[in-house]
Write a structure and sequence with these properties.
The protein has one helix at residues 2-25; strands at residues 33-42, 45-54, 64-69, 83-87, 90-94, 102-103, 107-112, 119-128, 142-147, 152-154. The chain is built from 1 helix and 10 strands, in the order αββββββββββ.
């Protein structure tokens, strides 16, 4: 139930950001979100560990990071409480509060693929930044090619 509530809040926040658009951007506080971590693929299983960072200048009350795979995920997933599945290939996770120049809590997400693949692309990006504006979107959007080797691929 907690994951469903988080999706409703995130969805409402996404709608508010979309309606406000660029006109609101001039008065909103600015923050710069970055994600660093790793992803491992072993058979149909992928393990992602990422740590959000806010490079400021404003605090972020909470943000949502999207993890989207190039292959569909298995129907059943056991996701952390702060994460929800939004479609066949996508999971969105809340970061929690992010202090200026601070690291957030590590987010660990394990997912299973619907079918076997030799490689998968993982796209990571911010979908909501808690009412702040991130003018440098180049460092919070990442694409990682992950091979089925059992090796960790860092981003």
């Amino acid at each position: 139930m907690r994951g469903t509530r988080a999706l409703a809040v995130t969805g409402a926040a996404l709608a508010a950001v979309a309606v406000a658009g660029p006109a609101r951007a001039g008065g909103a506080p600015e923050a710069d979100l970055v994600y660093h971590g790793s992803v491992v693929m072993n058979g149909k299983r992928l393990e992602v560990r990422l740590t959000p960072r806010n490079q400021g200048p404003a605090e972020v009350p909470s943000a949502s990071v999207r993890l989207r795979w190039s292959m569909p995920l298995a129907e059943r997933q056991n996701l952390p409480a702060a994460c929800v599945r939004t479609d066949a290939r996508t999971v969105v996770c809340a970061t929690g509060p992010l202090d200026v120049d601070g690291l957030g809590d590590q987010i660990a997400v394990g997912v299973g693929l619907r079918g076997k693949a030799q490689e998968v692309t993982l796209e990571i990006d911010t979908v909501w930044s808690g009412g702040t504006v991130d003018r440098d979107r180049t460092n919070d959007r990442t694409r990682v090619l992950v091979l089925d080797t059992g090796d960790a691929y860092s981003f």
